[in-house]
Amino acid sequence: MAFALVVASTGAASLYAIAAVSALRHELGFLRHQALPLLDDLRKSADALRGFDEALQRAAPEDLDWVVRLLPNARPYQRIDRILGRVWRQSQQARPSQLAQWVWQQPPSLTAVHTELQPVRQSAAGRLRMTGDSQLVAAAGDLASAADDAAAFDVLAAGLQRAIADKRLGDAARLVVEIRRMIRQVHGALGKAQAALERTLAVRAEGIARAEANLVAVVASTAALSLAVSILMLVASALALRPLQSLTSVLRQFATGERRARAKVQGAHEIAVLAEEWNRMADALDRRETQLLSQREDLARAERLTALGHMAARMAHEVRNPLSSIGLNAEMLGDELAADGEVGPNRGGTSASRPDRTEARELVAAISAEVERLRELTEGYMVRARPVDNLRQWLDLTALVREVLEFLRPELEQRAVVVHVNAPPQPLVISGDAASLRQVLWNLLRNAWEAMAVGGQVWIGIEQVAADGDGGTPMVHLSLEDSGPGVPSELGEQIFQPFFSNKARGTGIGLAVVREIARDHQGSVELVAAQRGHGARFLLRVPAEVKEGE
Fold first, then answer.
1. Of the given ranges (87-101, 242-256, 523-537), which has the lowest mean pLDDT?
2. Percent of the chain with pLDDT over 70
3. What pLDDT was estimated at residue 479?
4. Continuous segment of H or E residues that includes residue 477
5. CATH of 389-550, one of 3.60.21.10, 3.20.20.10, 3.30.565.10, 3.40.390.30
6. Residue partners of 538: CB distance under 8 A and separation at least 6
7. Residue-range domain boundaries for the chain
8. How much is the pTM?
């Protein structure tokens, strides 16, 4: 409302100022181009006629020759005609605008001059009076032909010229008296017109002064009103925004961690609503933060339990492989020792007939190796927190594959699984953790023979692949394919998820461990299309690094 008041008052004052300036400009134009030049013309004409009258008054009858020569310059009625024509032309000029007339109504501009001069110009009273004087008519000539006083003046001037030429001094003196009377009449009319015009100018000057004073008053009042309203608006804004400053302070406190900071619901309606909404939001955030902290603790507890579960499942899965081999070797050792007892000396046999114990010793060595493997495995889990980079060493991947196959040879033979290895003759030296890569091979081989029925084939391929593009790293590809039923393509990614298995007694850990080890070696593992049937084919990719100095 205050802003609207300031705008309305300023607009009205501006409109009034425009109208006042327009009126003042019109008045200044009127004074400069109309009134003052006309007043000067009236004054000059009156002065000239007074000079002629005084000259005629001082002239003796014998000195009238020079008067006759100057008399045509008097032209009193022609002067009135010129002034009236000027008044008429100026009255036809553009009037002030409607906006200027809205400020004040100007008085008639030059009507007073017209009122004083027009009766004199149209008068015939002097001619009628002169036609009644027979002596004057005889001295002047044909006065009856004159239509008005202006024409009678011309007849008198012509008669004076003839009387002076004929040396009729008495007639000349009589004509001079009448001419002076007519000049004085015109001079009086010019004086009255001059006085009327001066009064008109005085009235208009007063109007201009009042308009100027009104304009100054309006502008000053508008400025004072705008200043007062602006100060009131400033004070009102400061008072209205004080609660907003308090709300800002509360927001800063809340941002610094003081979660119990609440704003006071006060001030204008909008600010009070804002403070109330902020308090509601702060309460909701406080409850949400408390809930999130509780959920975070529950999530951390669940993650710890999940990690323990993953570790336990992975440990069980990894220990099962060597335990199976230990069980098989122990069973074979038991059979061997039973056979030895049947043919021993207590059973009546000779020492020469005892079977060779070399195989028994080999079985015992295998069992010892498996036990050592279990020890290494458990110790490996104890140091699993250490980075894989600390366990890296240079190793020949082909030799590692053959070592694993040799170790698993008894179990593979028992299951009638034939393994075909396709590897280059030169060593493929890479940087990696030998124990982890053995786990990869064991898990993939175990999945292969478990997927196949009794008997089957496994194809292992090892090759080095050149880098793709400039600056790339050459890779070593190790592929393992079995002759089993294969894995559906839609499960190609799910089988690497922990605890997912499509086998009846599977744990869902083996392939997850394989992918984790591949990632630890900056490589990858994926299920690809089979090349020799419908079995499953896994492709392991690891960077092929060259040993320094070679």
1. 87-101
2. 74
3. 93
4. strand 475-482
5. 3.30.565.10
6. 444, 479, 480, 481, 514, 525, 526, 527, 528
7. 2-232, 389-550
8. 0.42
